[in-house]
Write a structure and sequence with these properties.
- With 87 residues, this protein is mainly α.
- It has one domain.
- Helix content is 76%, strand content 0%.
- The chain is built from two helices and no strands.
- It is elongated, with a radius of gyration of 26 Å.
């Protein structure tokens, strides 16, 4: 199965400092590949950071409820643990 990758030439404007950084790590002729990898990496990391933020927010919002559940079920779990320990 042969995958054909469609490429499109675009014209972008970058700050001079950014272009200097790219020139340091990606030789001429390899910059498109470098930018492609950099964009994919950034999007992946941004997605992870967004997920972390959502998880933190959810944990904070549900902390009181979760603590109540733990307090409610702890005696039962402790009893089961003691019974299993005696075996």
């Amino acid at each position: 199965m042969n995958k054909t990758i469609t490429r499109k030439r675009v014209n972008i404007t970058l700050p001079q400092k950014t272009l200097q950084l790219i020139k340091r790590v990606a030789p001429k002729g390899d910059r498109s590949r470098f930018l492609d990898k950099a964009v994919h990496f950034y999007v992946k990391e941004a997605g992870r950071e967004n997920l972390r933020a959502l998880l933190r927010e959810g944990a904070s919002r549900n902390a009181e409820r979760d603590l109540g559940l733990v307090e409610e079920w702890f005696p039962l779990e402790q009893e089961v643990w003691r019974k299993n320990r005696k075996k």
